[in-house]
Amino acid sequence: MTVFRFFATRTTALAFSLILVACATTPDPNPALEQARTSVAAAAQDSEISRLAVVELRRAQELLESAETAWKQGATQDVVSHQAYLAERQVGIAAESARGRGLDNRVSELRSERERVQLEARAARAEREAALARADQSRAEAARLAEEAQRMRAELEASEAQALREQAQREAETARAERMMAEARAEELERETREMREQAERLQQQVADLEARPTERGLVLTLGSDVLFDVDSADLRGGAERTIEQIAAFLAEYGERQVLVEGFTDSTGARDYNLGLSERRADAVKAALIERGVEEERIRTRGFGPDYPVASNDNQSGRQLNRRVEVVISDDEQQVPERES
């Protein structure tokens, strides 16, 4: 009945929390945090948990507050989900603690009831023995009955003692197993956190080495065409080798990411010629990456000629900046979005 009330209350609390989330202006929703809100609210409304697991429930509320604070302060989804998971786990601990203490209370009640029954049984036995005595049964028969009753009582007590010892042993083994599981999970979480932190630091360093800038489309590496190619040529210079090697090494480590190579020229000369030149230069960069082990299906190319200038074409320095190749690397396995017109 308590479990039913607990989950029924969680359903009501979930609806309430969804209304609150819909009415507030907050960061992006976090499903784990919403679930944790629901669980903590449901636990707080459960009379048995509130009465028998006060400390555990308070700890769950504190962990939820920590998750809420991280979420409001713009922490990553992984950090918020981890904090929410701890709160959710603490709710489970509170529920189990309440259930265990409720069982302990029930055991005490049953023990008292047993003692009462035993007292009544002894009183009844004494009355029966008196009745037998009044019926003038022999003292020998009365002694025999008393001895038999004593033996049965001893067997019962021994049986109960054995049952209690076995129960205590099972509970100790369960507690030990739960503790080992909790320690293993804590170690696993610590290892995962450490790996995620190391991966993030490594990615940050690699992005810095490539001189890439993060954008909504992904990481953008701008390569000057004057460094990569000779004038009016789509053949890569020898000096471009190191840059191409760095890009290929990055793509080899992050094999799920997609690539879009975009070529650009300045406005000097015919537009059709510039479009063709920019396409050939983008294709040359693609071919160089394929030669270094990058899968062909991950790479797309575009040539925009003089379109999308980044500087004025009215002077030499501006035209030099406009003659470029941009390598756009996606943030995930999805293709890089096309440029908006």
Automatic annotation (TrEMBL):
It is found in: Cell outer membrane. The keyword Coiled coil applies. Keywords: Cell outer membrane, Coiled coil, Membrane, Signal. Residues 303-341 are annotated as: Disordered. InterPro entries: Bact_OuterMem_StrucFunc, DUF4398, OMP_bac, OmpA-like, OmpA-like_sf. Residues 1-24 form the signal peptide. It comes from the Bacteria. One of its GO terms (cellular component) is cell outer membrane. Residues 107-213 form a coiled coil. Residues 216-333 form the OmpA-like domain. PANTHER family: LIPOPROTEIN YIAD-RELATED, STATOR ELEMENT OF FLAGELLAR MOTOR COMPLEX. This is Outer membrane protein OmpA-like peptidoglycan-associated protein.
